[in-house]
Specification:
Pathway: Cofactor biosynthesis; riboflavin biosynthesis; 5-amino-6-(D-ribitylamino)uracil from GTP: step 3/4; Cofactor biosynthesis; riboflavin biosynthesis; 5-amino-6-(D-ribitylamino)uracil from GTP: step 2/4. The chain is an alpha/beta fold and 374 residues long. The chain has ten helices and 16 strands. The protein folds into two domains: 135 residues, Cytidine Deaminase, domain 2, CATH 3.40.140; 213 residues, Dihydrofolate Reductase, subunit A. Strands 11-10-9-8-12-6-13-16-15 form a nine-stranded mixed sheet, with helices on both faces. Strands 2-1-3-4-5 form a five-stranded mixed sheet, sandwiched between helices.
């Protein structure tokens, strides 16, 4: 992946790539389904240009950095966290701008998995007699654009399951009361996750119990697409999710005929097959969302939906904000999960625990044993 088989990167190389990654992070929640990209141009030990992709459809990081550097880009080194594009999209190919700017060296953190790029940008640069090194901080670059990589490699969105629970794992009381289990700081964090995601999904039970808006209010940012799973199309026509933004309802083919009772300007529908037990096929739901360019999906409930996603091994990131209290009898989020063998249980890996105000935030990657995967 480099002009040399095993490129040696200096501490200065790593420092400038860290700058590129930090710049890329500024585009979070604004550029999807594009990746977050940052670029830094360095000449004779001085940063002469930098930029990041700040909005979908806007100029790419490399183009901004080159414009910032001007004539100083001649003979310089470009650091970028993702392979530059080689195709015409909403903007011209970045590789052409890099070549015309007479940049001598390009350091790339990781190859772009998109089939339209996927090494073609690197090949173009080398044919233009530009020295290319690839692989600096590759793991960090992949982690930054985790949702983009999963979507491009599998066609499916990255699934984040975010829950607010008591210490004994309850989402609500036995009567359905759940406002509020966690404090305001945890709720603000939930809104931050919403604006960073392309869509937020809940089941019809959550809509009927809580009548949520599913919008971004406690932080500044864009509203995600609201996705509702409603097998029998029980959704009230005056539900709050219709007040602002776009809503997509997944339902059964049988129930789809009743969609005419809803305002077509506010909601669209998709029909998917049912499982043997009469539920919407979650894998087909996720496949359809991926087809609609949803790269990151935030799932907020309810308990049955969370339980099924965990049971089927469909969750990529599990985030649980835990209030230090007990409810006893109540609504949990593992109700459809049952194992007779202790070794079949769902385990958590890459666990991170931190305080979020008065609540605990646990973030991890759920893992099923091979015998439990279906």
């Amino acid at each position: 992946m480099s002009d040399t088989l095993f490129p040696e990167f200096s501490q200065e190389d790593e420092r400038y790539m860290c700058m590129a990654l930090a710049l890329a992070e500024k585009g979070r929640g604004q550029v999807s389904p594009n990746p977050m990209v940052g670029a830094v141009i360095v000449k004779e030990g001085e940063v002469v240009g930098k930029g990041y992709h700040s909005r979908y459809g806007g100029p790419h990081a490399e183009a901004i950095a080159i414009a910032d550097a001007g004539l100083r880009a001649d003979g310089a080194t470009l650091y970028v966290n993702l392979e530059p594009c080689v195709h015409f999209g909403r903007t011209p190919p970045c590789v052409e701008k890099i070549s015309k700017a007479r940049i001598l060296r390009v350091v790339i953190a990781i190859k772009d998995p998109d089939r339209l790029v996927n090494g073609k940008g690197i090949e173009y640069l080398r044919r233009s007699h530009i020295h290319v090194d690839v692989g600096l901080l590759e793991d960090e670059a992949r982690a930054l654009n985790q949702a983009y990589f999963k979507h491009r490699e599998t066609g499916l969105p990255l699934i984040i399951l975010k829950l607010a629970t008591t210490l004994d794992g309850k989402l609500a009381t036995s009567t359905g009361d759940s406002r509020w289990i966690t404090d305001e700081e945890a709720r603000r964090y939930s809104h931050q996750l919403r604006t960073e995601s392309d869509a937020v999904m809940v089941g019809i039970g959550t809509v009927l119990a809580d009548n949520p808006q599913l919008t971004v209010r406690l932080v500044t940012g864009r509203n995600p697409l609201k996705v509702i799973l409603d097998t029998k199309l029980k959704m009230p026509a005056d539900a709050k999710v219709f007040d602002e933004g776009k809503t997509l309802i997944f339902t059964s083919r049988e129930s789809l005929a009743r969609r005419e009772s809803y305002d077509a300007a506010k909601v669209s529908f998709a029909a998917v097959d049912l499982t043997e037990d009469g539920r919407l096929n979650l894998k087909k739901v996720l496949k359809e969302l991926g087809r609609r360019q949803i790269a990151q999906l935030l799932v907020e409930g309810g308990g049955m939906l969370a339980s099924e996603l965990l049971r089927q091994g469909l969750v990529d990131r599990f985030i649980c904000c835990i209030n230090l209290s007990f409810l006893g009898k109540g609504i949990g989020y593992t109700d459809t999960i049952e194992y007779s063998n202790i070794n079949e249980r769902i385990c958590l890996k890459d666990v991170k625990v931190s305080w979020l105000g008065k609540d605990l935030r646990l973030e991890a990657r759920p893992c099923l044993p091979a015998s439990s995967r279906k």
